Amino acid sequence: MPQVAAGQFQGMITSFRNRTILVALQPCVTLLQELANNDEFQNRAGTDDSTKAHFIQLLQACDRSRRMITFNPEKVDIKSIIDIDKKLEESQKPLMGDAVQLSSTPPVELPWRFDGTDPNIPLFDALRFRNGVGGLIYGAACDMVVAWTRLESRNRAYMITANDSLRMFTMIQSVKDLVDRLLGTNNQVDIAQPLQTDEPAGIISPNRANEVALSVAKDAGK
């Protein structure tokens, strides 16, 4: 029985015919794992430029896989987040010819768990980000993964159409826009105070220390 996706992955279709969509999903899942486990999102001040460059590199891998599985004999411009004005030759040619119709293929199950049981692909309630930016980007990346499974091309035996490819380009580009706008040194803010939940357990706030001492002395004098 197909898994039932939960949380932000609700709506995901977890069983379909088109195995090449798994090729596109693999770098997207890697992106989710890197987002969920990145220490930079524990820093309330923001991230550095190396973190921004890291996630752009991962998104470029997602885009390469998208172009790789696009069936595009009409040579439609299917764009690229690497250079959106450049038509890449490999993206204009199918991986295989279409002279002979392929035989029917059985459904394939997603090899990853999106029901909250995989700690490397957590649901929102399991995230421990101290930086709200991380949650925004993780949520957008989750939407991208769900969208891959809902393409009509999932019912094909092989490859995706140029229109579906452009739909996914838009999703990938939207995640990249968030990375460009929210990550990096220029987007850091100054944080001066720890959160109350960061205070050591059992330590009395300095503002309360004198009150406690007076209370103890008063009780001792009774």
Any overview of this molecule?
This protein has 222 residues and is mainly alpha-helical. It has one domain. 41% of the residues lie in helices and 2% in strands. The chain contains 5 helices and 2 strands, in the order E-H-H-E-H-H-H. A two-stranded antiparallel sheet has the order 1-2. It is flat. The mean pLDDT is 85.
Short overview:
The protein is an all-alpha fold and 222 residues long.
Please describe the structure with a list of short key phrases separated by commas or semicolons.
flat; 5 helices; two-stranded antiparallel ribbon; mainly alpha
Secondary structure layout plus pairing:
Blueprint: E1 15-16, H1 20-36, H2 49-68, E2 108-109, H3 132-149, H4 162-182, H5 206-220
Antiparallel strand pairs: 1-2
Helix pairs in contact: 1-2, 1-3, 2-4, 3-4
Q: Classify the helix fraction into a percent range.
A: 40-55%
Beta-strand segment tally: 2
Categorize the overall geometry.
Answer: flat
Specify Rg, calculated over alpha carbons. 24 Å
Distance between the termini: 71 Å
The domain count comes to 1
Q: What's the tally of helices?
A: 5
Mean pLDDT: 85
Contiguous runs where pLDDT drops below 50 for at least 5 residues: none
Write down the secondary-structure element order.
Answer: EHHEHHH
Specify the structural class.
mainly alpha
Strands across the major sheet, in which order? 1-2
Largest sheet: 2 strands, antiparallel
Task: Note the quaternary state here.
Answer: single chain
Strand portion, in percent?
A: under 5%
